[in-house]
Amino acid sequence: MEALDIARWQFGITTVYHFLMVPLTIGLGLLVALLQTLWRRTGKEEYLRMTKFWGKLFLINFILGVATGLVQEFQFGMAWSEYSRFVGDVFGAPLAMESLLAFFVESTFLGLWIFGWKKLPARIHLACLWIAVSGSVFSAYFILVANSWMQHPVGVELVDGRPRMVDAWAVFTNNTALVAFPHTLTGALAVAGGFLLGISWYHLWRRRRDGIDTVDARGRVVVGASETQPTRDRTDHAVWLRSLRIGAVVAMLAFAGTAISGDLQGKLMFQQQPMKMAAAEAACHDGTSFSVLSIGDPGSRNCDDVTAVIEVPGLLSFLAHGDFSTDVKGVNTLVPEYQDQYGTTLPDNPIYGDRAGQQIEYVPVMAVTYWGFRIMIGFGGLAALAALVALYLTRKGTVPRSPWLMRLAVFGILAPFGANSAGWIFTEMGRQPFVVAPNPQLSGIDQVFMFTAAAVSPGVSAAELIFSLLALAAVYGVLLVIEVRLLVRYVRGGVASAMPELAAARSAHQAHGVDGGQNTHDDDGGAGPAGGPGSPVADDVLAFAY
């Protein structure tokens, strides 16, 4: 295996690994900020517990996301130096804004939120979280601006063979980025919604299993309280039921958002990268039919090895053009067009090394694009359907006692993660053989492109890349074990794991007849009724800093 292949594997593995953390960080951060806002407005203790518990999981994921994200910058210089030189005059602005502005804002205000419980005024403390979460959203947008320029280069001119930015507004408002951003954001919310749903189901099921909650003759929940575990009280039931319902609603709305934004994104891809979408649909010949199922050689780039089994007439035209009759160019038509424009072999240039003169494969691996596209849609739809079923099954205030349903709900957390990862793999792998895809629509800059074969560092050997790949895989394996163990530990511990002194506080207040109930508080965060900020119960609860 040559250096180029190893470099691609390395970047693909580390990027997909990192992207497992990204949507959960963005989506869960937004939901935690919403929960703390609800606590500030209502004073209900379940919202405070929800903020603390889900906030703890958010922080664990955020820290691991930062650690794995740093590797991406390292790889640009180590394995992809030629790529970095080519895109540097364009990527400098969005990546600088991502790291110097968005990330610093995100980390600074998140630190204030972590250590600001009971030290900052309540309004400012809440504002810190919203600013931190907004920083993560802006950070995602700046990254998408850079990635979208690779998909659809705009706002540049070629100077000495390298693109130079001449229109920053065009780069930052690239229509590819404007469509990819809501698609990514709603995908992140789908991950967070499924995360809340699965974990909350698990805790409601445990309350049923342990006999804390029962059901009456009509199947309605009878909420109880544990005599030995003070934190598993009636408020604890409200924590999990509200979390489940919020997660389910968010998951369904997010799927609707991803479907709408995905349709817009697909139409742009048909214009900007027609080969990617033709391969995703296994559309070998011009036509209007969408392939529901095609079979053939899974590693094939040859349409002769692909046979459509089930097709829907007109659907491909609708996905591409919004009608049901316009023919869409297939792979067999597009290949000669790409060859006429960009050549049939890699140029005789020292930058390509031994790869100069090799045949250019303009068709990406169809198994990746075809099934990646369907896994993305299928897992996303499955997660939304599961959310709808969960709302129905919990309409009487609790979950069924079936352990199999519980396991299904927990494993269902992985479905939106799979949809997000499959979508990114499809987007990036489908762009091959280009690392910067050509722009076929703007004649003035249609020669701004870069073959992946030219992007790899010329001075890095295959052995060095194998060593770094194994080293990174080992480190990532350790980090994976750490994150999973931390998440499992705090999930099993429930609210008490995020608020370790809550049990003692509850026992003491219960002994004095205080229930820490559902009361509201005054708006300025001063002394308020029991359960609100400034009350004895809330003062104890607020002291449980992360």
Give a verbal description of the structure.
The chain is mostly helical and 546 residues long. It has helices at residues 3-42, 45-78, 81-115, 122-151, 168-172, 175-209, 234-272, 274-280, 315-321, 331-342, 366-393, 403-411, 414-429, 462-493, 495-498, 502-511, 536-542; strands at residues 156-159, 162-165, 214-215, 221-222, 290-296, 306-312, 434-436, 450-451. The protein has a two-stranded antiparallel sheet. It has a two-stranded antiparallel sheet with strand order 3-4. It has a two-stranded antiparallel ribbon with strand order 5-6. Helix 3 (81-115) packs antiparallel against helix 4. The relative contact order is 0.14.
Descriptive labels:
two-stranded antiparallel sheet, 64% helix, globular, two-stranded antiparallel ribbon, mainly alpha, disordered C terminus
> How many β-strand stretches?
8
Helix/strand class? mainly alpha
The neighbouring-strand order within the major sheet is 1-2
Query: Can you give the helix content as a percent range?
Result: 55-70%
List the helices and strands and how they pair.
Elements: H1 3-42, H2 45-78, H3 81-115, H4 122-151, E1 156-159, E2 162-165, H5 168-172, H6 175-209, E3 214-215, E4 221-222, H7 234-272, H8 274-280, E5 290-296, E6 306-312, H9 315-321, H10 331-342, H11 366-393, H12 403-411, H13 414-429, E7 434-436, E8 450-451, H14 462-493, H15 495-498, H16 502-511, H17 536-542
Antiparallel strand pairs: 1-2, 3-4, 5-6, 7-8
Helix pairs in contact: 1-2, 1-4, 1-6, 1-13, 1-14, 2-7, 2-14, 3-4, 4-6, 6-7, 6-12, 6-13, 7-8, 7-11, 8-11, 11-13
